[in-house]
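Order emerges. One example.
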Amino acid sequence: MLYEADALYHALRAKGLAETGSPDGKTKSIEKQYNTIQFLRLVLPLQGGIAECGTFKGLGSFMFCHYLRGHDPGYDGKDFYIFDSFEGLSEPEAKDVIDDTRVGTTGQAYMGAGAFHGGLDQVRHALREFPAIEFHQGWIPDRFKDLPERQYRFVHIDVDLYQPTRDSLEYFYPRLCEGGVIVCDDYAHLQWPGARKALDEYCDPKGITVLSLTTGQGVIIKRDRTS
């Protein structure tokens, strides 16, 4: 279906924007989110958890959970995991400094520490229809250390910077089921060079293919349990 004509998607997005108080990124944001949901739909027949690393005000998780409920009318957020500091970005590092003159901010990071701050209570309220969601507040990778061992079928990584992107990938990829999907929101954005470096450094030596989308996302589909 053409995303412009997808009435369900646009209705849910409008509701999500209102519930979460998220800024409306207009066309670019609409296309990115619509792409992400198509990959979520791809894994619906699979078994495993769903994780979002970096949720900001919760719009992505709001949309994902409503689509999961469309697949399973009784869905209450079970096996859905949100990882976020709820304090905004951590401090950018050298690998996050922009080195492309097309961006106009060469020699510095696009955003500083604390950007994209979204409060836990606000996000929890926005997602109140899904009480079984597990919120893991804290910095990545610290919040991964005490997690029980489990398999995942879908992971959305939207943490912008090199180190948390790399840490998220190192944790979740080995635990991704065959056919499972990781979507990195920032992979092909000039403003976030650290995200691309993180994926390329992890994936290239292992022969893992990253699909680079025109919306700036990077997508990994796991095809071999042993990789």
User: Anything to note?
Assistant: DSSP finds six helices and seven strands in the chain. The first helix runs from residue 7 to 20. The domain at 3-221 is CATH 3.40.50.150 (Rossmann fold). The mean pLDDT is 91.
